[in-house]
């Protein structure tokens, strides 16, 4: 916001300087006056104006510089940082240089005005000599003299105003110098604080670096231990995997052997079962035969017993 405000102030100063240059350029030169008789009052007024003109020109330069400086407002110096102080100081230096250039320009313009006033005075003398020769053009000469007086009075008023403005500009320049000194003092104080803070930060960073290096070495040692443990664990895992694979292969061989044994046992079991079934059938037939024989013997025995009883 301060930069925007400063830019606006510089633009206003430039516009004021341009308007002043235009006003100085637009001021009409003194009209060529016809000859007329000179009077004592005119000579006294011209002599007084010649004495006052250089003082008014100096005052005009001072007032213009002060006005251009007073048009720019500076914010409170309590709420800006170190970089803002540097920028403000640089801007103040630039503004002082520009105001000095404007003062030189106004001095040149005042010299030009003095020369023009001298030429006007010389023309007035010539005109007064011509007035003695040409009395017929007295009315026109009077009118031109009145116009010239009005023009000179306006110039005097303008010079007085410029002298007042120059006094105001001097006061503003003194204020700016005081502010510049205050800014320098604050800048020195801020630089001291910054150097102290930076030295303290550097010491803290050195301590932090030492601690971080020790911690890093400890972490490296721990990492090496973990890496060794991981390598050992991987080796043990590979050995265990080999043992498991070997055991699995042995187990497959045992299963195949057991499978062949079970097949042989099943074949023997089937053979023995078939032989047992055949033997059972034979026993059944024998049992049936024995039962038939027993029945026949019983019947015969019963018949014999019955016959005996009879």
Walk me through the structure.
This protein is mainly α. It has a domain at 2-201. It contains four helices and no strands. The protein has helices at residues 2-26, 40-70, 82-133, 138-309. Helix 2 runs antiparallel to helix 3, helix 2 (40-70) packs parallel to helix 4 (138-309) and helix 3 (82-133) runs antiparallel to helix 4. The radius of gyration is 66 Å and the shape is rod-shaped. The protein starts with a helix and ends with a helix. The relative contact order is 0.09. Residues 27-80 have low confidence and may be disordered.
Supply database-style keywords.
mainly alpha, 90% helix, 310 residues, coiled coil
Question: Topology of this structure?
Answer:
Layout: H1 2-26, H2 40-70, H3 82-133, H4 138-309
Helix pairs in contact: 2-3, 2-4, 3-4
Region (Disordered): 1-77
Biased composition (Low complexity): 67-77
Keywords: Coiled coil
Q: What oligomeric state best describes the polypeptide chains here?
A: single chain
Terminal CA distance: 158 Å
Largest sheet: none
Give the C-alpha Rg.
66 Å
Mean pLDDT: 75
Compressed to H and E, one letter per element, the order equals HHHH
Which range does the strand content fall in? Answer: under 5%
β-strand number = 0
The geometry reads as rod-shaped
Instruction: Enumerate the spans where pLDDT stays under 50 for 5 or more consecutive residues.
Output: 27-80
In DSSP terms (H or I, runs of 4 or more residues), the helix count works out at 4
Helix content: over 70%
Biased composition (Low complexity): 67-77
Biased composition (Basic and acidic residues): 41-60
Region (Disordered): 1-77
Keywords: Coiled coil
């Amino acid at each position: 916001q301060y930069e925007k405000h400063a830019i606006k102030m510089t633009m206003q100063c430039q516009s004021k300087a341009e308007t002043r240059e235009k006003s100085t350029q637009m001021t009409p030169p003194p009209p060529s006056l016809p000859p007329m008789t000179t009077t004592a009052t005119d000579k006294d007024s011209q002599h007084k104006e010649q004495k006052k003109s250089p003082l008014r020109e100096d005052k005009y330069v001072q007032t213009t510089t002060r006005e251009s400086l007073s048009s720019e407002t500076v914010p409170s110096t309590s709420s800006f940082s170190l970089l803002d102080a540097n920028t403000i100081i640089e801007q103040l230096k630039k503004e002082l240089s520009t105001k000095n250039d404007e003062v030189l320009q106004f001095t040149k313009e005042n010299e030009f005005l003095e020369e023009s006033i001298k030429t006007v005075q010389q023309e007035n003398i010539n005109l007064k000599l011509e007035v003695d020769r040409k009395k017929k053009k007295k009315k026109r000469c009077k009118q031109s003299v009145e116009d010239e007086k009005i023009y000179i009075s306006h110039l005097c008023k303008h010079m007085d105003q410029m002298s007042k403005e120059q006094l105001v500009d001097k006061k503003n320049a003194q204020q700016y110098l005081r502010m510049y000194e205050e800014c320098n003092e604050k800048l020195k104080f801020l630089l001291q604080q910054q150097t102290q803070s930076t030295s303290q930060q550097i010491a803290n960073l050195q301590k932090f670096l030492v601690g971080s290096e020790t911690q890093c070495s400890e972490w490296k040692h721990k990492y090496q231990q973990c890496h060794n443990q991981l390598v050992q664990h991987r080796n043990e895992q590979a050995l265990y995997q080999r043992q498991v694979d070997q055991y699995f292969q042995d187990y497959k061989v045992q299963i195949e052997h057991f499978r062949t044994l079970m097949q042989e046992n099943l074949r023997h079991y089937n053979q023995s079962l078939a032989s047992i079934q055949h033997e059972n059938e034979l026993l059944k037939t024998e049992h049936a035969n024995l039962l038939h024989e027993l029945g026949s013997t019983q019947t015969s025995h019963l018949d014999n017993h019955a016959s005996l009883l009879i």
